[in-house]
Amino acid sequence: MPAPLIRHPFMNGPALSECNAAAMVQAMLAFELALAEVQERHGAMPAGTHRAMREPLESHAFDLAAMAEGVASGGNAAIPFVKQGRAALPEPLKRYWHMGATSQDVVDSALMLLLKPRLAALDALLLRCRAAAVELMNTHDQTVMVGRTLMQQALPITFGVKVAHWAIGLEQSRRRLAQVELPVQFGGAVGVHSGWGELGLDFMDGLAGRLELAAPVLPWHTDRQPIHALATALDAVAGAAEKAALDVALLTQTEIGEVSEPGGEGMGASSSMPHKRNPVRCALIRAACRQIHGHATVIMNAAAQPLERGLGEWHAEWSPLVDSALLLEGALEQLARLLEGLEVHAEAMQRNLAITGGAIMAEPVSRLLVPVVGQDAAKRISAEAAETARIERRAYATVLTEHTEITGRIERAELERVADPALYLGSAQRQVRRAIDWLMAS
């Protein structure tokens, strides 16, 4: 697979280097050595055993290629890993290696260890996005723009309140992700710590503390709620990130031009059209998020697993789960840069407010006219004046004052006030302040 060309560009480079096959092996090794340490502490093996195991194993060069081949015959990476690890130990120590554990204990716990730093990185990126959004909100809380529904001009809003909705979505999903627990997995062959009696739960709790993972109530071999919670939380962040990127991309269209992505050498360049400045960051964000949505579907469909070990469902989780975290890290890196360098064109927003000749203010104008001319006439007059203003490129309020049915019946100043988009923003400015207070309260 040409991953460096079609997969990795949507991910975060440093994260990719920290989340590879070698890192997975190190995470599995951390689990096994922690297990031995906990078991030794509880008297299940002679004192000093875990240290004696640690030295040859930490310096051992595991054969990743052979391990990968072993997955095809054993069904998971733990089986060839355990085999290689045991072969690297002196004969007297072999019996204590992987004692009481099963493959799923190793793989699930290793994945949790692998993903833990990724969640920390995601949180940091979300906080970076939040800071950039708050700065935009403060700067543009009074920057008036068109509000659009069903892709059409509706009524005026501010750019600050638009960014506030992006920020709220991102922060809500950040808090949800922060609450997700990464539990250790340890239950043995069928999840009841066979052969260890009540000590099995002590081993499990001790492992959780040693590896700094959450201690589950019970082993969760076919209770995939922890994986489901993590995958859907990642997907929620992806949804919030994609929403912001979609809005920005739509606002960058040549005919709208209300914002531009940050510039830079080669950013947004076309292979054939020199004049273009494509919203590439938005494209990368949305492409990554679309893949995360697909991965979440795979994991949700694997939530119900048979009996005491999944038959394909468990196996189907691994790649989508890790890829989702890596894709999301890449998307949020792009989003942070996008928000930090976003170019906002207030003059284009003003131009687009006037593009309909004032029709965007027909609704409040109609409300003003109702007591004077009645409901039906008010709606007709406000629409007629808007069309005239658009065709003749004149101010909406001026055309209204000249309309024969209302001439002399309403003061020009009142018509100008009602036709001013900046005076019809509802609670937009207060919403921005309220959003900032909520965002910064955590």
What's the pLDDT, averaged over the residues? 94
The main sheet orders its strands as 1-2
State the name of the first-level CATH class of the largest domain.
Mainly Alpha
Classified in CATH, the superfamily of the largest domain is: Fumarase/aspartase (Central domain)
**Beta-strand proportion:** under 5%
Count of helical regions: 19
Explain what this protein looks like in three dimensions.
Strand 1 and strand 2 form a beta hairpin. Mean pLDDT is 94; it is low at 269-274. The chain is mainly α and 442 residues long. The longest helix is centred in the first third of the chain and has 37 residues, at 103-139. The chain has helices at residues 3-6, 13-18, 21-41, 49-58, 64-74, 78-87, 91-94, 103-139, 159-178, 199-211, 225-251, 280-301, 313-341, 346-353, 362-373, 375-392, 396-402, 412-418, 428-440, and strands at 144-149, 152-158, 259-260, 343-344. The chain has two domains: 3-350, Fumarase C, Chain A, domain 2 (Up-down Bundle), CATH 1.20.200; 359-418, Fumarase/aspartase (C-terminal domain) (Ribonucleotide Reductase Protein R1, domain 1, Orthogonal Bundle). It has 19 helices and four strands.
